Amino acid sequence: MHIRRALYNLNRNPAALCFNRNLCYYIFNIACDRQASPSHPAEPRSRGVDGLELMNYVVFDLEWNQCPYGKARENRKIPFEIIEIGAVMLDQDRNCVETFHRVIRPKVYRQLHYRTKEIVNLTMEDLRKGMPFPLAVRDFLEWAGRNSIFCTWGCVDLNELQRNMNYYGQLRLLPGPFHYYDVQKLFSIAFEDGRTCRALNYAADLLRLDEEEEFHSAMADAKYAAEVFRRIPKELLPENDSLNVYQNPKSKTEEIHTVYNQYSLYISREFATKEEAMRDPEVRSVYCSKCGKKARRKIQWFAAGSQKYVCLALCPVHGLLQGVIRMRKSESGAVYVKKIVAPCTEAQAELIRRRRDALREKRRRRRRQNEEKLSAMS
Q1: Residue 43 above 60 pLDDT?
Q2: Lowest-confidence pick of 34-43, 71-80, 328-337
Q3: Mind listing the domains of the chain with CATH numbers?
Q4: For 266, how many CA atoms within 13 A lie in the half-sphere containing its CB?
């Protein structure tokens, strides 16, 4: 069976599995033309991929500032400038090993935004004593080491870290895409419904953590997130890691095909427009997340919003499948696709049919109204 469709031995129950040869170079962070040399001291080789030895978890948090003079004067390449990094290193058993903290001297926005002043526990005097971001982030990556996996509360911090690195020409130090643990998502899976996104202080209250330090300090928030992460049942971790694609695929050979326990994930290369993306055969195709066989589409892809498309398919072995495509914009402004295919119940299939029919009826009414207007004008 084709390498992009062949399923991994399910008994190993991997966190995420790539079927694209070239993604191996991303995930293992070696020998790729868009990456740093493997000998670079700050290069993090392992990001928790199945089969690699995991040494540590690095739970980190960032605080950042934004343009104090409004959006009209912000630097679009770096709308949020990182001013503090706090991190906690946990070993394989999730015991605290050491901590990392840096305050960063701002270069882009030299005054604090009024909302930043209200939230963070830093003053401009503190920031002026800080170190430049390029040195701070290099220290952080060298401290984190090669065989570690990042853990953050939500996905935003990792994206902003890479955006700031990109601004300073340092993105090669952290090649991507890579796997990480979203502690916010894990908290929801372990203690709530798996879909609700809660604030860190809510999680700390629910788990009755000792709240000795104020929130919205990078170091304090990293410690709280680490304590939440330590309370996530270990058996949940292999099935629920996340994939950061801030550094999205740029070519066909870099496209990502990954299978989780309940669904398959596909990240496409870049396209000029979403219409071009939806014409691509690989984007439109649906493969079963359980057996890898091509599924027949019972309901073709239809727009369920300005950036979302949905379809219904049938696997000859495993039954109904739901496909969801979301359009994403890269830093360059190009479009790429995030496609998820998952098993679907008959009730879910009926909802898809109703939504499709409602959209069809809406289009019919619009056409009739336009025809009536044209008739009245003539």
Answers
A1: no
A2: 34-43
A3: 18-244 (3.30.420.10), 262-364 (3.30.310)
A4: 26
